[in-house]
Amino acid sequence: MTTIPILEVRALRKHYPKVKAVDGVDFTVPTGICFGLLGPNGAGKTTTIEMMEGIIRPSSGEILYKGEPMGPRFKNEVGIQFQSTALQDFLTVRENLKFFSNLYPKNMSVDELIQICSLESYLDRDARKLSGGQRQRMLLAIALVNDPEIVFLDEPTTGLDPQARLNFWELINRIKARNKTVLLTTHYMEEAYNLCDHIAIMDHGKIIAQGSPDHLLSEHFKDVIIELPEQDFPQAAETIPHRRLAKVNPSIEISTQDVNKTIGELLQAGASLTGLQVRQRTLEDLFLELTGKELRP
Amino acid sequence: MNLRRIGAVIYARSLEFVRDRSALSWSFVMPIVMVVGLAFIFSGDGQPLFKVGVITDQPPTETKSEPNPNRNLHPFLNTQHIDFYTVPTEEQAAAIKKVGRHQVDMLLDLRPNQMHYWVNTESPKGYFLELLLKGSEGTKLTQEIVKGEQIRYVDWVIPGILGMNMMFSCLWGVGYVIVRYRKNGYLKRLNATPLTATEFLLGQIVSRMVLVVGVSTLVFTLTNLFMHFVMEGSYLDLLVVLVIGTFTLITMGLLVASRVRSEELSDGLLNLLTWPMMLLSGVWFSMEGTNPIMQWLSQLSPLTHTLTAARAIMLDGATLWQVAPHLLVLIVMSVVFLAIGAFGFRWTTD
Questions:
Q1: What ipTM does the predicted assembly reach?
Q2: CB A102 to CB B350 under 8 A?
């Protein structure tokens, strides 16, 4: 077991004339884990990941790959999927894979790529005529052509339908099973919770929390959430601290550390418990808790 | 530098071009239609007058660019509807060649110790002029026969049409396409691979080179089957000119593409380059006798040098050595364009 982390980021900054896109970020990505970089739109996730990929030059700070500054071997050993990528026109999926394979000294076999990314049904189709999910799978295969040690995935499931997203998670798990390090950005908390061993939440160019998802939740929340429809919430219960959620069916949200006591109070106030739900805190709650709920400029 | 990576770029780019049916057919059909159309339009004889060159010691009567010879030299010079013009003695050889090509109908040498005339016995106009000359009074001139095929406008213009097609294909096929790749993020994706800028650019150059040289050769060969162009020089020399000229035009496209971020700007820049080049490089008409500033400007266009060299080989039977100055200019231009283009190349739009 090596103790040198595959990637290490120290005091990383990227300042543009009017924005501090990334403003002093430190974290470590141990070999073989799935690391999630989370944050709202404009938090600086893409700028951070693109600096780590060697695409954008940092204003200051340090990025270490296997304990050393990025050298010429870096590009040979990493796989990258950008948020949006255009390819050449008029090439099929197979031709694109072949083209990118030829750019690297070491390759994963085309058969393996097809199997990992489930490409068999549309291998000979023009790459411009793929559905969103098919296209993302092809782009993932392109990121894997050199059998990389670390794969960077920038919002790979944004814009996919729920089924395509679930399929994509499965592919990421297949990659993890091959002991590859995965660095993923996303703004879907559910995705981070399901895939990532370690997450860092970014906002305004800074990291505001990091750790394993369960650790972060237990660190920030000791409570659970009780939710019930607004019409079931009587006047008499207004004394219990609560929050109104404006949804199609408006509801009341109560945060509590003692479920029995709160439910007793609700019954006493004459509330109906037919529509009541009790749920654990999620990363979604943590995300909103940390980044705030106000509209962003 | 990695040949496998360059090969991959060449293959992918060529596939893209060959599968783009509209672009492919355009680059074939346009020049063929133009050659055939122009041959048809100019199939009649454009010059109503007989044209006769006169070599003489006497000063010309008027001081114009093509001064009239002194009419007292020989009574034949008083014949009406004939355009007599003075030929300087040092241009005698060129003028004799023009008689051979039917560009000039007759050449007279009226220097006292010479007294010859040159005529192409295959030319109908030459035949009538000879009859007129014999019927005129004055000193009897001795006949010198020149042989040669007639040079039609289409023989002169074919390098121009192919050159124009090459220019569009090189400038847009490289300049515009690379800017598109940059704008849609494809270059950024390539930058994330081990591919270097030099390898990428070399791949683009070679792919375009093969396509443009191939298309031009094919169009020339096809049209030659039924137009039978005049060819005084060597086809191999012509191919060398084609390759060097194409290379220069491609590097010019790279220069435009090296930094530009928007397709609109590259489109504008390419138009800004191609239109003056099309007008000033002698594509449609000879730049001889035009304003000196225009002639000077035309020397800045790589197309001028390509066309001049190609015409010299085709029409005058020049050798590569004789057109070497033009080729040298082209090579110097490409080195400069390539150096600036590769040095200033950027992958992303940031």
A1: 0.84
A2: no
What three-state secondary structure class fits A212? coil
Sign of the torsion formed by the C-alpha atoms of A228, A230, A233 and A238 = positive
B159 within some domain: yes
- Distance from C-alpha of A267 to C-alpha of A270, rounded to nearest angstrom: 5
Buried b (16+ CB within 10 A) or exposed e, B71-91: eebbebbeeeebebbbbeeee
Are residues B26 and B34 in contact, defined by beta-carbon separation less than 8 angstroms?
no
The partner residue sitting opposite A82, judged by closest CB among B11, B16, B189, is B189
Could you report the per-residue pLDDT of A41-64, keeping only the tens digit for each? 888 999 999 999 998 999 999 999
CATH 3.40.50.460 fits A222-280, yes or no: no
Once rounded to an integer, what is the mean pLDDT over residues B159-174? 92
Please work out, in degrees rounded to the nearest 5, the angle formed at the alpha carbon of residue A46 by the alpha carbons of A43 and A47. Answer: 85
CA distance A184 to A193: 12
A147-184 pLDDT, tens digit each: 999 999 999 998 889 999 999 999 999 999 999 999 99
Question: Bridge partners of A8?
Answer: A28, A64
Considering B146, B180, B199, which residue would you say is the last residue of a domain? B146
- Residues of A within 8 A of B6 (CB-CB) are none
Answer yes or no: do B282 and B339 share one domain. yes
CB contacts of A86 in chain B (<8 Å) are 181, 184-186, 189
Residues 6 or more apart from A16 whose CB is under 8 A from it? Answer: none
Interchain CB contact of A75 with B (< 8 Å):
yes
Closest to B295 in 3D by CA, of B65, B69, B100, B87: B65
What's the gap in Å between the CA of A102 and the closest CA on chain B?
A: 6
Give tens-digit pLDDT for B41-76. 766 554 546 888 888 877 666 554 556 777 778 888
Query: Does any domain span residue B348?
Result: no
Q: Which fold has domain A7-218?
A: Rossmann fold (3.40.50)
Closest CA to B267 of B151, B149, B183, B187: B183
Is residue A99 within a helix (H) or strand (E), and if so which, with residue range? helix A93-101
Domain that holds residue B140: 50-146
pTM of the prediction? 0.80
Rounded CA separation B117/B145 (Å):
8
Sequence ranges of the domains in chain A: 7-218, 222-280
Q: Does B172 share its domain with B284?
A: yes
Q: Which residue in chain A has the smallest CA separation from B20?
A: A90
